[in-house]
Fold this sequence. Notes:
The complex is a heterodimer.
Chain A: E1 7-13, H1 21-24, H2 44-47, E2 79-81, H3 94-102, E3 106-109, H4 114-123, E4 126-129, H5 132-144, E5 149-153, E6 158-160, E7 166-168, H6 173-181, H7 185-190, H8 193-206
Parallel strand pairs in A: 1-2, 2-3, 3-4
Antiparallel strand pairs in A: 1-5, 5-6, 6-7
Chain B: H1 6-14, E1 15-18, E2 23-27, E3 30-33, H2 39-47, E4 58-60, H3 78-94, E5 97-98, H4 109-116, E6 124-127, E7 141-144, H5 147-156, E8 158-162, E9 165-172, H6 181-192, E10 200-205, H7 207-210, H8 214-222, E11 231-233, H9 238-244, H10 253-263, E12 276-281, E13 288-290, E14 298-300, H11 314-327, E15 342-345, H12 353-363, E16 374-377, H13 382-390, H14 393-400, E17 403-404, E18 425-428, E19 443-446, H15 449-458
Parallel strand pairs in B: 3-4, 3-6, 4-5, 6-7, 9-10, 9-12, 10-11, 15-16, 15-18, 16-17, 18-19
Antiparallel strand pairs in B: 1-2, 2-8, 13-14
Helix pairs in contact in B: 2-5, 6-8, 12-14, 12-15
Amino acid sequence: MEKFEKFSGIVAAIDRANIDTDAIIPKQYLKSIKRSGFGINLFDNWRYLDPGEPGDDNSKRRLNQDFVLNQAPWDQAQILLGRENFACGSSREHAVWALMDFGFKVVIAPSFADIFYNNSFKNGLLPVALEGEQVDQLFEQLARNSDFRLSIDLEKQRVVNANGLEMHFEIDPFRKHCLLNGLDDIGLTMQHADAIKAFEQQYYDQLPWLK
Amino acid sequence: MSAKTLYDKIWDLHQVRCDDDGTALLYIDRHLVHEVTSPQAFEGLELAQRTLWRKQSILAVPDHNVPTIGLEHGITDPVARLQVETLDANCDKHELTEFKMGDSRQGIVHVIGPEQGATLPGMTVVCGDSHTSTHGAFAALAFGIGTSEVEHVMATQCLIQKKSKNMRVRVEGSVTPGITAKDIVLHIIGQIGTAGGTGYTIEFAGVAITNLSMEGRMTVCNMTIEGGARAGLIACDQTTLDYVNGRPFAPQGSDWGKAVAFWGDLHSDEDAIFDHEVVINACDIAPQVTWGTSPEMVCSIENNIPDPSLEADLVKAGGMSRALEYMGLEANLPFEQVYLDKIFIGSCTNSRIEDLRAAAEIARGHKVAPNVKLALVVPGSQLVKQQAESEGLDSIFTEAGFEWREPGCSMCLAMNADRLEPGERCASTSNRNFEGRQGQGGRTHLVSPAMAAAAAIKGHFVDVREL
Ligand code: SF4
């Protein structure tokens, strides 16, 4: 996994609560056995006016020009702003892969569904949970300025911009450490292989029917 | 020792180690695997040259992509076929237990786990699928994980986890006749909201819950994720033991006695403290129907479609209006005037034998209404299908004009050919009514199997208690 570096990027907003993972990446694209190539179908049902199937030439499909990610400058956005319970629903990690493949590095929302939140960190996508009022404030600023940018500083746990806006966010220290250093979870857990083996020994003594 | 919740007990039993900040390694007993969320995990293992830690913990099955008709032709969609073939190849290569297409035990992963006794009380159960919460009905800590975590469990038999908070939902008293587990859980979601359980593990308790069969308990735990919680739990009791006893993967002989003794403690201590508690009166629950595009947009069949102009919260009202527009519904319309194009009885929520019996009971001797273009019954597994056929349920359905299909996820998420066309309206026993879930532009109403069967017969929604 790549290290999460401080950056500044364009913010795109979708003003809906409960955006689900079926909306982020519809099921027909889950048939892929790869991790890449999902960006073109991110928010497929909202982004295109005609239905799509895997393998379609997306350049031939009709774009929904009203959808934010089809408009400049947001087609270059790296930060997505959403509402409560972002990415609820299915556990599909494809939702994270699609957001990242499109170019997003950060999602800001008042709350996230648990599985998505977890999946994000495994891939280097940073979910930033802010207070509802702070999120309202970002929506308002964005409405006034289409070239609205934010800088994300994970080290200092801050969201800032050139106009003096500054917001602090909370993040689990372990997850922060892994993101900043680009650490692989499996490698970290493997360092505890002996502890796992010792655990198994006593566990199967106690619960022999599971052995 | 301080009093513990059921969740605390299972957690403590499986905690391998824990850092000061609460980051823990949790040991996983059972890993269920299906074709959609596993290929990238197997690939990741290979790229990193890692091996599987405990092969016998894995039970794999293809379900999401399998066709429910014409099995003899195999999967015709080449992309879907490759995914199922990839699962087969990965399982063969690593010598994992898999119920392939055509196996008499194949079915939806959350139906076959319990059916085989692969889900046992006190276990930790994971699967790359959010409805893994289903298995919590067995007092097992069961939750969905992403593909990276699938790979992590394969490589280490553990997950890096932080403990969630404890919530209890007590459904007190008995439900009235005609009310099913599906109505109970939809009602609960309507009360707590789709994010109400975020950050919690929910234990379901109360007489209305303990009175449920295992099938009903699985329906309730299945939809815990729709209430925002990754895991739902129900204490182990005689009903649990009776269900598990004698199943192929369940402990046998002297092991059975040892296991039962151990499982006797799988309930919350009397004075255990929950971070949050919700109490619901069972007698308040009427048959439920969703009207919008989120499972919390649900109400009783006795009510009319809600009116956004009466909602004080403007963001909420906006969401309601958008949902009604997508659903093609007018505010204040009675449900009896909502006509259906398709009916789907199936999914890991409601495709077990008891669900099929309840639907057949309603369908018996009637005909599917002419405005209903397709009424599908998709059993949860080959074994459920066989059982239903031995009881003659298949002929009740087919004589009434329903189609009797092969097991799989089917129109729950429409990855195979079973789907809604744009604008079509469906009464569905599945668990998600998101936009496009059952096909792009499709409109889903979640209901119980009996309510779905009644809607099929009438052509519109109807209170099943009035039939
Ligand atoms: S039946 Fe539906 S909810 Fe259940 S596992 Fe299959 S797709 Fe998921």
